[in-house]
Amino acid sequence: PSHSESGRNYVIGASGLVLGLILAVAGFIFYKKKSSADGYYMYISNECLYSKHDYSDMVYINLYVFNKDVKMLFNSTLGFFVGFTEAGVKAANNFNKDQTFIDQLKAEVETTCKRNADNVDSAIRDKTVEPTVIVKSVKQGEGRHPALLLCSAYDFYPEKIKVSWTRDGAEMTSDVTATMEMADGDWFYQIHSELEYTPKSGERIACVVEHASATRPMVYYWGEMKHLSSLSERRCYFPHNINRSPTEPSHSKSERNYVIGASGLVLGLILAVAGFIFYKKKSKLPL
């Protein structure tokens, strides 16, 4: 076979493989749509809802859903089932007649909800995570002072925290602004405090952070890149989830690009091997 013919065979083999993959994916999608459109879906969920530490507001919910429509639910506060569809009303009335079953569901508040909530809280909610803190200078747009210091605390838990400023050990109360604690959406919080100031030679300005994760206030000195407490001395480092500018690539983005590149390489190798095998079979030469 000539080079042009071998190249043509390679292209045909690769094209055939790609076409086969496209048809397989299309068939799978058609099957899923067809089966989901013609089928029925029902699920039952059991939920424990509360917001107080003593679980005095604990509520047990037993929910029945059919084809995305709520059929009926049991609320431990109400103490009976409520139907929301014609079939759900009939089923709810039948369940409510069984007092033994209703009492069993009411007991779920104590036997299931509070017991599991206590286990989860002892493993998660009652734990503390020390904040990662940085102190940096930012540009001042307007104001009476030429400089603006920003103290940011990241990745701490629980939510309650106090951030203050000191100059040579004395607390500063004027020209200080702070945000509320902001939830990151992953159990952790962040907070930011700003200090407008006029720098003087030899003075030491520090951001003081008080949190349940530390037994003493943590003191972060501006320009020294470390924080001090009466018990230990540790370096202050940059947190992993600081918001970056669009020009700064994050680790997650680089990892995503790596995965995409690796996937493209693997797919290319598969297509190349398939085309080579097709070419060899076509030319009737031994592999």
From TrEMBL:
Bilayer topology: Single-pass type I membrane protein
Major localization class: membrane
Location within or outside the cell: Membrane
SUPFAM superfamilies, per the entry: Immunoglobulin, MHC antigen-recognition domain
Keywords of the record: Disulfide bond, Glycoprotein, Membrane, Transmembrane, Transmembrane helix
Transmembrane parts of this sequence: 12-31, 258-279
Any single Gene Ontology cellular-component annotation: MHC class II protein complex
Superkingdom to which the source organism belongs: Eukaryota
Domain Ig-like: 131-219
UniProt record, GO biological process: antigen processing and presentation; immune response
Cited Gene3D superfamilies: Class II Histocompatibility Antigen, M Beta Chain, Chain B, domain 1 (3.10.320.10), Immunoglobulins (2.60.40.10)
UniProt-listed Pfam families: C1-set, MHC_II_beta
SMART domains: IGc1, MHC_II_beta
Protein name listed in UniProt: Ig-like domain-containing protein
Species assigned in the record: Danionella cerebrum
